[in-house]
Amino acid sequence: MEQKDVTEQEQETVDEVEVKQEESTETTEEVIEEVEVGTNNQDEITKLQQEKDELYERLLRLQAEFDNFKKRSVKEREAERKYKAMDLASELLPAIDNFERALQVEETEANKGLLEGISMVYRQLLDGLKSQGVEVIEAVGKEFDPNVHQAVMQVEDENAESNVVVEELQKGYMIKDRVIRPAMVKVNK
């Protein structure tokens, strides 16, 4: 019986060794899997980090573009407000020119009241345009400036300096710092 007990003990020992070997093999496989998973996780982490960096840079670019858009919109609105009367003034200038021509008529007893009425309307138009920033360009006696004057004739006048406006044929107007219509002038040679 003792031999049987010994063989049973040996068998149990062999079984225990086999179980330990199996556990050891399973543990080794788990460690190998963990290393492989760790490597795969590291690759995924690196990939996700790159993706996050790309998205962050894209977000920064979009924010910068939006800020530029806001600034550009503000500038456009300011320019629009600044020059809002420009189109209206351009439309009214021919009427103002006609009022000026009407006021050049010689005053008589018959047309005195009519000329006073035309003069009042003319002044009101000019005051309204002036309140919107529209101003008459000074020309006569000033040096010729191609930015605000349009030379249509040259004359020789010994009493005036060279390149100076001697006569204004049509008034010019500007709004703030923009020319609506340049003054038509005669310039001394």
TrEMBL record:
GO MF annotations in UniProt: adenyl-nucleotide exchange factor activity; protein homodimerization activity; protein-folding chaperone binding; unfolded protein binding
Signal peptide residue numbers: none
Stretches of the chain forming a coiled coil according to its record: 45-72
CDD domains: GrpE
Coiled coil found in the keyword field: yes
Keywords noted in UniProt: Chaperone, Coiled coil, Cytoplasm, Stress response
Annotated region described as Disordered, given as residue ranges: 1-44
Alphabetical list of Pfam families matching this protein: GrpE
Localisation per UniProt entry: Cytoplasm
GO cellular component: cytoplasm
Record bears the keyword Cytoplasm: yes
Annotated function: Participates actively in the response to hyperosmotic and heat shock by preventing the aggregation of stress-denatured proteins, in association with DnaK and GrpE. It is the nucleotide exchange factor for DnaK and may function as a thermosensor. Unfolded proteins bind initially to DnaJ; upon interaction with the DnaJ-bound protein, DnaK hydrolyzes its bound ATP, resulting in the formation of a stable complex. GrpE releases ADP from DnaK; ATP binding to DnaK triggers the release of the substrate protein, thus completing the reaction cycle.
Subunit (UniProt): Homodimer.
Family membership noted in the UniProt record: Belongs to the GrpE family.
Protein's UniProt name: Protein GrpE
Organism: Ornithinibacillus halotolerans
Organism taxonomic ancestry: Bacteria, Bacillati, Bacillota, Bacilli, Bacillales
